[in-house]
Amino acid sequence: MAATILYGKEIAKDIREQLAGEVAELKQNGIVPGLTVVLVGDDPASHSYVRGKARGCEEVGIRSEIIYKDASITEKELLEIVYQLNENPNVHGILVQLPLPAHISEKAVIEAISSEKDVDGFHPVNVGNMMIGYDSLLPCTANGVVELIKRTGMTIEGKHAVVIGRSNIVGKPVSYLLQRENATVTMCHSRTVDLPSYTRQADILIVAAGKAHMIGKEDVKPGAVVIDVGVNRIESGKLVGDVRFDEVKEVASYLTPVPGGVGPMTITMLLKNTIEAARNLAR
Ligand SMILES: Nc1nc2c(c(=O)[nH]1)N[C@@H](CN(C=O)c1ccc(C(=O)N[C@@H](CCC(=O)O)C(=O)O)cc1)CN2
Ligand SMILES: [Mg+2]
C-alpha cells in the first residue's frame, strides 16, 4: 500500500481562500482584522517564520504589523509593549514569537497577553478552556494537525490515536483536541518504555518528538494515518521530519511530508484565530 501524501500546503491554500472571504465580510461591517507580531532578537528561523506570518496575513486581507526589538530589551519593556497592544482597539491578535532570550520569562509574557487576543492559544485561560471543551483560541499547530486529519475524510471517533511528545505547543494540545473528536488517545514521550508496542497499535500516529527519522515502517500499523510534526535540520543542512518518509509511505494510508505538511497549516490556523478574535472583540 502506498500512502496518499497530505500536502498541508495545498490544503492551507484552500482554507486561506475561505478565510479571505470571511475577512472581506468583516471589512464590509467596518472591521479590519489586525495582527501584531513582536519579534525579539535576530534568530534567522524566527525571522523567517514571522515573515511567513505577515505574508499569510497579506494573502487573506488581515492588517499586520511586526515590532522588531533588540535581544537586549528588558522583560519590563517587553511587557509594556504587550500592555499597550492589549489596549489598542485596532489590534485583535497579539503574538510574541518564541523562543525569547533567556533573561525574559516566557510565562510572564504569555500571561500578560489578553486571553482574547492570544492568537497562539498559549494563555492559561485558553489552554484551560480547550481542556474542558469550551470555545477558545486553539494552539495553531495542534489545530492544524487535527484539521489535516479531518481533511482525509476519515472518521476520528473511536480510533486509537497515539501521540509522541508532550510539549505545550503540540503534544499536549493535540491529545486534547483528538479526545474532543472522540478518539482514544495514548500519550508517549521520551521516557516511554517499548515505544513501538504503542505506535504499532495506532490508527492515527502523531509524531512530535523532535528526533530526526525516529519512526520507521516497523513502528507503524499498516493503513495508519501518520502526521509528522518534526522539523529537524540534519548535518547535510537538509530539513527532515521525525518519520522516515520513504519507508513509512509504503505502509501508511496517509502521510505528511516535511517540509510542506504540518508547517503551512500552523500559519493558516493563526490567520483563522486572528479572524475569530476580531469577530469576538467586535461583539
Ligand atoms: N509564538 C510562537 N512561537 C513559536 C511557534 C508558535 O506557534 N508561536 N512555533 C514555532 C515556530 N513556528 C512558528 O512560529 C513555525 C515552525 C515551523 C513552521 C513551518 O512552516 N515549517 C515548515 C518548514 C520551514 C522551513 O523550511 O524552515 C514545514 O514544516 O513545512 C512554521 C512555523 C516556535 N515558535
Ligand atoms: Mg526502530
TrEMBL record:
It catalyses: (6R)-5,10-methylene-5,6,7,8-tetrahydrofolate + NADP(+) = (6R)-5,10-methenyltetrahydrofolate + NADPH; (6R)-5,10-methenyltetrahydrofolate + H2O = (6R)-10-formyltetrahydrofolate + H(+). Residues 6-120 form the Tetrahydrofolate dehydrogenase/cyclohydrolase catalytic domain. Pfam families: THF_DHG_CYH (PF00763), THF_DHG_CYH_C (PF02882). Its EC number is 1.5.1.5, 3.5.4.9. Keywords: Amino-acid biosynthesis, Histidine biosynthesis, Hydrolase, Methionine biosynthesis, Multifunctional enzyme, NADP, One-carbon metabolism, Oxidoreductase, Purine biosynthesis. InterPro entries: Aminoacid_DH-like_N_sf (IPR046346), NAD(P)-bd_dom_sf (IPR036291), THF_DH/CycHdrlase (IPR000672), THF_DH/CycHdrlase_cat_dom (IPR020630), THF_DH/CycHdrlase_CS (IPR020867), THF_DH/CycHdrlase_NAD-bd_dom (IPR020631). NADP(+) binds at G165, R166, S167, V231. Signal peptide: none annotated. Pathway: One-carbon metabolism; tetrahydrofolate interconversion. GO terms for cellular component: cytosol. GO terms for biological process: L-histidine biosynthetic process; methionine biosynthetic process; purine nucleotide biosynthetic process; tetrahydrofolate interconversion. One of its GO terms (molecular function) is methylenetetrahydrofolate dehydrogenase (NADP+) activity. It comes from the Bacteria. Residues 139-280 form the Tetrahydrofolate dehydrogenase/cyclohydrolase NAD(P)-binding domain. The keyword ATP-binding does not apply. Homodimer. Belongs to the tetrahydrofolate dehydrogenase/cyclohydrolase family. Catalyzes the oxidation of 5,10-methylenetetrahydrofolate to 5,10-methenyltetrahydrofolate and then the hydrolysis of 5,10-methenyltetrahydrofolate to 10-formyltetrahydrofolate. PANTHER family: C-1-TETRAHYDROFOLATE SYNTHASE, CYTOPLASMIC (PTHR48099:SF5), C-1-TETRAHYDROFOLATE SYNTHASE, CYTOPLASMIC-RELATED (PTHR48099). This is Bifunctional protein FolD. It comes from Brevibacillus borstelensis AK1. The lineage of its organism: Bacteria, Bacillati, Bacillota, Bacilli, Bacillales.
